[in-house]
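Long-time lurker, first post. I've been practising inverse folding by hand and with some scripts of my own, and I keep getting stuck on stretches where the structure tokens seem ambiguous. Below is the full token string for one chain I'm working on. Before anyone asks, I'm not after the true native sequence, just a reasonable design that respects the backbone. If someone could post their per-position residues I'd love to compare against what I wrote down in my notebook.
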């Protein structure tokens, strides 16, 4: 806060005000809808949209991130609490706040310990598979409120209102911005108005409910929404803390990933730099604030942050203005909110989450790396078949497994000299010349316990393919570290080559690697030499 507030200029104010107003209008139906996804009263979604963005504005590092309820975290909250038996409505709200408190505490602790780098172990394809699976689960869960019952027992007035709202939202998403631009509206303004379509559809449906008394016809409404600001919430259930720890850890992890994804996208467009540890602190305090005001877990929203950015937000003051307007909406009479039809809110949720079904990552991964594509599909299947929490765990395991699998199979190239130069390149890619009794291999990975056996096996294969070899040169340009297991593996290789009268030589070894090797016996026992460059090794050994 001190940074952006100290450098605040009057010219930034207009954009922050306009963005604050737009996001506040968007948050009314969205916050209430996401509270329903979590199994909570709609007003709780508004409670979770006031204090959290204020705290994030104070401590977060993104200038345009919008923090509040979000579809995936709402689904995870509902799934976590649904697994706890014998939970009545009052206790359910208490446990939702406890879940936010635990998630926030985890995020805050991670930020203070500066472990934001851990998010890098969750690959983008796996995150995409998780997001697609969660979006499909959320959309399917809204079919019954959309139709006012199951497909076989639908309630006709509810289904008409829900499907009509769904059609209006899809048409607005596809065509409204283009129509507004064709009518002469500026492109940026047209996009913002189009993104506010859910608010206009909800207002239109509310007017229709009031005019036709659809509530009396059996259409489910949000019901009475208490006016007034949320009070301080200190209620908790001591016996349920242990049951909430695991889902809180998973929700906190997903909160950080989703938020960082949204914030990084906008930061790149603004040429700004994010601080992952500040993000953890900001998100942690936002969730703690949500818990203390009767809310549930919150995160940065990709779609809402994009609206905030498009509407002109320059600093976190836009989020402060949005929070203030939502607070005013609760202080003012809230009778009209009671008429919001649940079928229309279900339609807004379905359209919002189906917008998360981006398949470009799958297409790119399928063309570029089938392993990543299969990890995406496996995560998607895990979320759909095993549930949201199991899907997150499966995604993390797949990310780590894929990383270990790749590291355990490093690329090793046979090198030859490019004619008339001192450059050595892979003989399978370039017309490079080799020396019959000198085998030069470049190891393109760090050496550690997970790949040392594979490296030695590949070396043996190349020695068998080159039976005239008298000198083996390991070109270690890409090797930045050698752990103890790999050191033993090199010592065993050195001993084996000595017995076969083959010299083992190292070339282009990085300084830090040499420094560590000096603390071992390998350098002194080496059945060969350490050369500064591959060219020097080739010239020296070819002359012997």
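-- Answer (accepted) --
I ran through it position by position. Result:
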């Amino acid at each position: 806060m001190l940074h952006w507030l100290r450098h605040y200029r009057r010219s930034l104010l207009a954009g922050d005000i306009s963005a604050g107003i737009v996001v506040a209008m968007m948050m009314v139906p969205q916050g209430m809808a996401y509270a329903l996804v979590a199994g909570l009263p709609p007003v709780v979604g508004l409670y979770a949209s006031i204090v959290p963005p204020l705290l994030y504005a104070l401590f977060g590092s993104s200038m345009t991130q919008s923090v509040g309820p979000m579809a995936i975290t709402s689904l995870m909250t509902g799934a976590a609490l649904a697994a706890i038996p014998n939970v009545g409505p009052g206790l359910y709200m208490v446990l939702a706040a406890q879940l936010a408190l635990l998630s926030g505490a985890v995020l805050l602790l991670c930020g203070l310990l500066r472990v934001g780098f851990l998010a890098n172990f969750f690959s983008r394809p796996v995150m995409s598979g998780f997001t697609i699976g969660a979006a499909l689960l959320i959309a399917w869960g809204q079919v019954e409120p959309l139709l006012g019952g199951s497909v076989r027992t639908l309630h006709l007035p509810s289904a008409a209102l829900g499907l009509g709202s769904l059609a209006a939202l899809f048409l607005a998403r596809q065509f409204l911005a283009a129509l507004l631009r064709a009518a002469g509206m500026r492109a940026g303004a047209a996009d913002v108005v189009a993104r506010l379509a859910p608010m206009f559809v909800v207002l239109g449906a509310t007017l229709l409910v009031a005019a036709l008394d659809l509530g009396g016809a059996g259409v489910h409404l949000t019901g009475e929404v208490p006016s007034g600001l949320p009070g301080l919430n200190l209620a908790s259930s001591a016996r349920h803390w242990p049951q909430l720890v695991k889902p809180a850890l998973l929700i906190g992890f997903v909160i950080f990933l989703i938020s960082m994804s949204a914030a990084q996208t906008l930061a790149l467009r603004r040429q700004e730099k994010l601080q992952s540890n500040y993000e953890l602190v900001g998100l942690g305090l936002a969730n703690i604030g949500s818990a203390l005001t009767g809310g549930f877990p919150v995160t940065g929203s990709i779609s809402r942050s994009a609206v905030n950015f498009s509407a002109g937000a320059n600093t976190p003051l836009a989020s402060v203005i949005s929070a203030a307007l939502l607070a005013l909406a609760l202080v003012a009479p809230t009778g009209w909110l009671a008429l919001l039809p649940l079928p229309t809110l279900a339609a807004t949720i379905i359209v919002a989450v189906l917008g998360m079904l981006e398949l470009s990552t799958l297409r790119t991964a399928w063309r570029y790396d089938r392993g990543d594509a299969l990890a995406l599909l496996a995560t998607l299947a895990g979320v759909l078949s095993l549930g949201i929490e199991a899907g997150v765990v499966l995604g993390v395991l797949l990310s780590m497994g894929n990383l270990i699998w790749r590291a355990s199979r490093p690329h090793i190239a046979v090198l030859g000299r490019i004619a008339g130069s001192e450059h050595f390149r892979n003989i399978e890619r370039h017309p490079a010349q080799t020396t019959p009794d000198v085998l030069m291999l470049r190891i393109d990975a760090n050496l550690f316990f997970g790949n040392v056996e594979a490296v030695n096996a590949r070396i043996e294969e190349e020695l068998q393919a080159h039976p005239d070899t008298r000198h083996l040169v390991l070109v270690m340009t890409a090797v930045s570290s050698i752990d103890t297991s790999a050191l033993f593996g090199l010592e065993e290789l050195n001993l084996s080559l000595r017995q076969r009268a083959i010299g083992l030589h190292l070339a282009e070894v990085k300084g830090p690697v040499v420094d560590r090797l000096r603390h071992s016996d390998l350098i002194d026992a080496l059945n060969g030499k350490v050369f500064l460059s591959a060219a020097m090794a080739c010239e020296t050994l070819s002359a012997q």
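A couple of notes from the structure itself: The chain has a mean pLDDT of 90. Residues 2-404 form one domain. Happy to go over any region you disagree with.
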